[in-house]
Specification:
The complex is a heterodimer of chains A (114) and B (112). By secondary structure, chain A is mainly beta. Chain A has no helices and twelve strands. In chain A, strands 2, 5, 6, 10, 11 and 12 form a six-stranded mixed sheet that branches. A four-stranded antiparallel sheet of chain A has the order 3-9-8-7, with no helix packed on it. The radius of gyration of chain A is 14 Å and the shape is globular. Chain B has strands spanning 4-7, 10-13, 19-25, 31-38, 42-51, 54-57, 65-66, 76-78, 87-94, 102-103, 107-111. In chain B, the strands form two sheets. In chain B, strands 2, 4, 5, 6, 9, 10 and 11 form a seven-stranded mixed sheet that branches. Chain B has a four-stranded antiparallel sheet with strand order 1-3-8-7, with no helix packed on it. The N and C termini of chain B lie far apart (36 Å). Classes of the chains: A mainly beta (114), B mainly beta (112).
């Protein structure tokens, strides 16, 4: 079955630390990939997405993600986090073969110490 | 302003009492979807709709119904709610399946 794994359930960092959140998916075909963010008390917003082309994707607020097809990964990175990055982050995959399934990971909660 | 709205935002009900959560979008999107969010499980897709009168099951459809009579509306119906349907529900829409989804503000449901 298709699935998305986010191995880090809760990450705690200090301000200015570098961030990398892992995302792996299990599907051998073509996919669209997304990272969404949910700030406390708010709804999900798109951070960035990958459909095709350059596998290094830049999103809002200084986030970027790299699609590594051979590793089935789409890790999210930010060189220097801020307290305002405290949120829950969701990776999502949309396989081309599936009519309309969009599969989300279980989420990673990021806590930033001021 | 482009948005997805959900009503109600908070709901407490009792087992077996039918309820409907409405979802409406003003972006003329064809694709709409319902998710539930539970701690440690992320978002799981309940139902989705590719267009008017076209709906299909997601990963966790049991206990839910949907309808898509108009493009802008996609209500979620719980015919006989049970406590295991206590959750945070999100509606989302996009131009099509492959595009960015816009999420509603969420509906927090408690079934006693």
């Amino acid at each position: 079955a298709q699935s998305v794994s986010q191995h880090n359930h809760h990450v705690i960092l200090s301000e200015a630390a570098s961030l990398e959140l892992g995302c792996n998916y299990s599907y051998g075909g073509t996919v669209n990939l997304f990272w969404y963010v949910q700030y406390p008390g708010q709804h999900l917003q798109l951070l960035l997405k990958y459909f095709s082309g350059d596998p290094l994707v830049k999103g809002i607020k200084g986030f970027e993600a790299e699609f590594i097809k051979s590793k089935f990964s789409f890790n999210l990175r930010k060189p220097s986090v801020q307290w305002s990055d405290t949120a829950e982050y969701f990776c999502a995959v949309s396989p081309y073969s599936s009519a309309s399934k969009i599969i989300f990971g279980s989420g990673t909660r990021l806590s930033i110490r001021p | 302003e482009a948005q997805v709205t959900q009503n109600p935002r908070y709901l407490i009900t009792v087992t077996g009492k039918k309820l409907t959560v409405t979802c409406s979008q003003n972006m003329n999107h064809e694709y709409m979807s319902w998710y539930r969010q539970d701690p440690g499980l992320g978002l799981r897709q309940i139902y989705y709709s590719m267009n008017v009168e076209v709906t299909d099951k997601g990963d966790v459809p049991e206990g839910y119904k949907v309808s898509r009579k108009e493009k802008r509306n996609f209500p979620l119906i719980l015919e006989s709610p049970s406590p295991n349907q206590t959750s945070l529900y999100f509606c989302a829409s996009s131009r099509d399946r492959e595009e960015t989804q816009y999420f509603g503000p969420g509906t927090r449901l408690l079934v006693l």
